[in-house]
Amino acid sequence: MPDDLADNSNERCYPPWFSREAFFKVRSNKIKIQGVGEILMERSRRAKHIRITVRPFKGVRVAVPFGVSLARAETFARSKAEWMKKHLCKMHQLEQAHKTFSENYIKIDKATAKKKLVNRLNELSEQHGLPYNRVFIRNQKTRWGSCSAKDNISLNCKLANLPEELIDYIMLHELVHTRVKNHSKKFWQELNKFVGNARKLDKRLNEYRMLLID
Question: Which of 103, 124, 139 is the last residue of a domain?
Fold first, then answer.
C-alpha cells in the first residue's frame, strides 16, 4: 500500500472570503487515530505531496506541502490507518531489539572514535591509491557514511563500534565513490577489487542497524 499521495493539481478555486494567509497559518498539529495513537501533522517546504513516515522512537509524522490543507492531509492520514499500524508494529520490534542491543554493547566515546576512524581512513586511502579531499566525523541517524561531489567524506562516529572488516568496507565504499559517484554496476565492480564480495558485506551491516538509531 502506498504511503503517500501526489497532488498534481496546479490550479485551485477559492471562495471570495478565502484567506490563504489564514488558511496556511497553522504549521503543525497533532491528532489521534484509533489503533495508531498520536501522530504529528507538519508542514514541509521540501514535501511535494503528502507523505507519511514511521520512525523508531519518533512515531508517525505526516509531511504536508504548502498548498494542501491540514484537513485534507488528516483525511488522507486516517485512510492509511492500517498501513501505519503495520509499520508501527515493525518499529516497536526494532525499538525492542535496539534496547537489548544497547544493553550488551560497549560504546566508544566520540573523541576516541574520531581518532580511530580518521587514522584508518588515511591508511586505506594511501594503501589503495584512493585520495579524498576532507573528512568529517558526525553522529548520524540514517547512514554510515557518504561522499560528496567534492570528494569530502563523512563518517558516522558509530562506525568505531563495528567489526574491523565492516569499518574497512564502509570506508572503502566511500573512497571508491571518489571515482564512481553512483551505485551502478561499475561502482560495485570497482569496490569488489578492494573488498572481495561487497554485496555480502553490505548485507552484514543489517545486523548492526540498531546502532544508527541510538
Answer: 103
